[in-house]
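Hi there,

I know you've been waiting on this one. I reran it after we fixed the sequence typo, so this is the corrected version. Both the input and the resulting structure follow.
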Amino acid sequence: MTGFARTAGSAGPVHWAWEVRSVNGRGLDVRTRVPGGYDGLGETARTALQKTLTRGQCQLTLTLTKPETTARVRINETLLASLAQAVARVPVPEGVAPATMDGLLGVRGVIEVEDEAADTDTLARDLAAGVVRLVADLVEARRAEGRQLEQVVTAQVDRIAALTQAAEENPARQPEAVRARLEAAVAALGGSSLDPDRLHQEAMLLAGKADVREELDRLRAHVASARDLLAAGGAIGRRLDFLAQEFGREANTLCAKANDISLSRIGLDLKAVVEQFREQVQNIE
């Protein structure tokens, strides 16, 4: 669910930039930071992300940069010429100084100050188009990460399947193996005269208590579900997260029921892989 996207542009002298950062999260949390007066646009961008994403913590930022001075001075030459001609036609009274250029320039309307600020409508359109590009770029960045994670998670599911099969084929699960261990324990206690039939019954009882058939069947079912989800694609992170919990539950039971060190090792290896799987699926939308 991690990703970063940036898009920028200009509207007249105003430079703008959208940025969005996405990190892992169990749910979807979109936070915005926009300049004053652009709250409505920030909410529009938030809605666009909420409609597209389902998981992750996103920080959306809009930056606007304006020059310190954007004013342009223009002289109304037509008005200035008319004033000069009018002044030239008027006799100058005695004791009155003739008109000067700085005096004429001081007449209202001769000097015009034009603001070069960007057209607000154009800026709004550019920013809205930038949001569309930003969301598309973020989605692509997250998909690129997802394609890499798919290989990692698929390998982990394959490892879980292999360990499940190893537990299935483990000789220690057979009643004969349980009986042999029981006989060795009885002999060590000096009870070699134990009735063979009774010894067999005890071995069958212990084998039944240590049977992990149901756990192995459920593990195989969860492996099949995980592979189906990975093949289907889309927003599967929550469902994989649920499967990780189920994998962990079965692995714990397998370790608890293990009646031999070799089966215990398989169970511990399984728990380690399941934990790695659980950590990785937290990164998937």
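Quick highlight: The mean pLDDT is 83.

Best,
R. S.
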